AAA family ATPase
Amino acid sequence: METGQLRISLLGACTASYGDAPLDLGGPRQRAVLVVLVLARGEVVPVERLTGAVWGDRPPADAAGALQAYVSHLRRRLEPGSAARARSSIIVSGGRGYAVRLPPDAVDVWRFERLLERAATASAAETVQLVGEALGLWRGPPLAEWSDEPWAEPEIARLVELRAVARERLVAARLELGEAALLVPDLETMVADEPLREERWRLLALALYRAHRQADALGALRRARATLADELGVDPGPALRELERQVLVQAPELDVPVRRPRAPDGPAPAAAPVADDLLDREHELAAVRAALDDLAAGEPRLLLIEGPAGIGKTRLLTEVRRLAAERSVRVLTARGSPLEKTFGFGAVRQLFEPQLTDPARRAALLAGAAASARGVFDPMGGDSPDGSFAALHGLYWLAVNLTVDGPLVLAIDDVQWCDSASLRSLAYLVRRLDAVPVLVVGTVRTGEPHEDEELLADLALEPVAVVLRPATLSPDAVTELVGRRLGEPVSPLFALACHGTTSGNPLLLRQLLRGLEADRVRPDAAHADVVVAVGSRAVSSMVLMRLRRLGGAAPVVARAAGVLGDGAPLPVVAALAGLPEQETAAALAALARAEIVKDEQPLAFVHPLVRESVYRDQPAAERALRHERAARLLRAAGAADEQVAAHLLLAPVRGDGAATEVLCSAARTAAERGAADSAVTYLRRALDDLPAGAQRCDLLRELGLLESLVDGAASTGHLLQAYERLEDPAERADVAVAIARTQVFASPPGAATAFARQAAEALPGELHDHRQALLAIELVSGYMHALDPAVWRHPVPDPDGAGHGAQMLAAALAYDATIEGADRERAVRLARSALEGDRLWAVDHGLFWVIAAIIRMLADDDLGDFWARARAEAHARGSLFAVLSTNLWQGFWHWRRGDLAEADSCLTNALDESRMWGGAGIAPPFALAFLIGCHLDRGDVAAARATADAAAGSGPAVGDGGRLLQHAIARVLTAEGHHERALTVLDAVPAPVPVPNPVWNPWRSTAALALRGLGRTGEAIAVAEEEVRLLRRWGAPSHLGASLRLLGEVRGAEGVAELREAVALLATTTAAVDLARARCTLGARPEVPDDEAVPLLRASMAEAHARGALGIRERAREALRARGCPDALHGETVRPPTVTERRIAELTAAGLGIREVAQQLFLTPGMVRSVLEKAPADGLKSLSSPPGEARAPATGRTP
């Protein structure tokens, strides 16, 4: 008989046909025999199993004979053309049972499965055809007449699941072909039919997104989350979570994929075998090897490996370590963890402490500039800084010192869980890595919030950064991994189920395969439903299932270890589990065999996700109580206070002060390390636990003062609470000054002024110096916040005494005199008094001593080495705000001198540090205004525009900084030719406080240029003349010279006298760019004879070229061409050294090496090396010459 014409159908009613003729299969029991044999797919089915399927537990006395009769009848009916008693070729005997022998397409179930297997490796268009054909075989519920039979139920469930998967695959293929909008109604119906199938929600959201309905896509994902939570009590799996992230950011990979032509057939070249956990990682491995090659050449790098949990970030980090070890490169490692997130410099200590165990080596590594990091590793040793900046700088130099013996790799796993102090240290190091042979490699789990999220994001934008984002595994890689692990040929349908269930996540796949291997599941098409049944929560479900199977003490010990976290000692784990140590050790061994913990010491889970699964399996309230007990056990075991405090942060708040002692001790340790943010975290928790009383008042004050270093806004709130509770007048006065000073930068405008006035009025008479300090803050904040003068401005007596308050008041009155612009001598005298002895540095992080220094700059009073001393003091004290202030105003100083590159560097650093410090954003408007000035002086209008746009996007700015920023924006508009808009901006600048002095209110210069651009020359001259008049009254030559130059330019042919006066005045100052501009303007006037003009223009071109003021250089060049003179730059245009370059030259000439010079000047070794390599041909002599000797050739000087 030709069996190829026989067809048996089980997907609906059980029927058979031969050719076009239907076949009678007999009664239900006889048909059941056939179905059981067909479902065995050619394997022999024992008689006992057939008997059980036909009669259940009530077989007849002669069951074997009755069964034989059924088989005989089936043979005849399935082979209608065969001779009687001929040997059957369809149902054959074998051993003690029977089997069917049929072609692959004879049974609709078999054909259905084969079509799905073919579709697993087909293109989207082919998949639509194949899966459509497969689904067309269904004529109703499978095996419907046996739906209540135990032998049929598993097969029915499997087939129904396969059909559901097939429908989803058909939709996915049609989505790939661009049919999104058409599929939405069908998908809504499919989701309604089975709302717990995550793949359907995923397809619906994707279809909505591709149909340009992003809001609806997000709504569908929210419905999915709610449904899963309500029905199953679980969160969405990784596929849905990743899709939600991609929809939110409109990821390009969500778009309809572009179909590329298939690669030509042919044998591929043989490749070396790849480790199981490095499949599909060729791109990442190439980047790692390139980074190590760069490191060997002395080039630093930052590698950030980003991705969701389980994507393989840690495995790549391990490969970095292995490849580095192959090259004999030293690797220092650290790992962040949720429990240790508050440990001050915890990750940094993991990196460096192993290198500091030998006393002699420790002393050498922590010498020089690295000495300020000693407190990080020994908080009880030496003086502790009042903030973390000194520690950051010291840690940078510790890393530099470690490179003396060769390149260095710093490998940090789970950066998202590192403490904030370590993260800032990492950022500080990375930004100063030029020419330091260090490779920093960090893994970052996406989707994990961090207090310093912006800092993490900024790291990825650093020039030395390379960001790697490992993708999920491809279907081919999954197939290969399944085969390697389960050791058999893998059905494409089974592999597809593994890929779809885990979304190609390597960790989820490993956990899934571990469970399948334990259950001895075969990787064939018949078992694809087993994979699908596991669902997408592979880690949690498989880990918890393994825990339940282990039984005994293992689950209890795992939960105790989950609470304690990695590194917990065995005795403490045993105590928390309530078990003997020997039983705990045996349980840990069982957990290691089940791949839940590592079989090593100290104790660690195989992956953070595994620990999280065990940890989250415990109810939140129970976890909190276990953390409380863990804290007691660790303290009894002698653990460090920070380790105990980490558990107290997660324990219930009792409100009885029991936890306060440990938390305060941990805070002191963190503060002594320079990790003020960690100290603040501990103290805030201690405050929650402490009842009212004197100790609470002390704690509020301690917390507020620490917060002033890292979180100005929070600082004022806690200091105000302490102030209200304090009774001692002197203590209240100290806190009042701290509050008011912090409010200037961290509170809304007006808060500092109002509080300072009220606090001063409440002071007893004997606290006169405190009153002067508060009065000074009231005056300065009124100016800085542009408040109504009626609120704060009133007669103020001159400073009295030599206290800090008197110096603060001197600075404030110097500021007032400068604003008025009538008495430069008085302003300078008061500013010098404020800075006398550098005493203000001890109590003021960067307000009054900065004001005094600004006044002296605006008065052209030489500051000498003030900024070098200020920087050294700020670094030594470790105050972030003091460093910020130094960078901001030293940047202003450099800009006024024409040191544009150094100004740019300082101001950019100030902006970074302002973001780190927080507060009300007083500093950024100043920095942005001065940066715009630098860009315009360089002639880079595009960069100035970009900075102006960035400033506009950061929100409104108030006070002096906001006013100066608006003036700078108006200058940009004038440079772009938008004169009317520039005047509009100037007119809109609020001026509640009159500022007559143009040195601090230079709007007239910009207005004059805009008016001239509009052809309103008479108005422009009047405005410029008024500015000159005011500046003659003030008397600072650099500002007067710049204003005279503008007036001369606006007056045209009649302004030559003003231009000559401007050049003469500016030649006596350090304002190099202003002098170059004045020389160019004068030399370009046709009224000036060649013998005067040509030397001026050449000197201008040389100076502008040296300073990077390319716009002025080109204008001077054009003016020379107009006079028919050579316009090339000659050897005479040696660039004058900057302040920094002169100091480098002086220290190098004194015999200091590159590192010693860098340490003294707070530079990186790369910066020093770059200066020395670019020194002129005559070496260091020209760099160390006084600025007047190197400014310009003699012919360019105007007497």
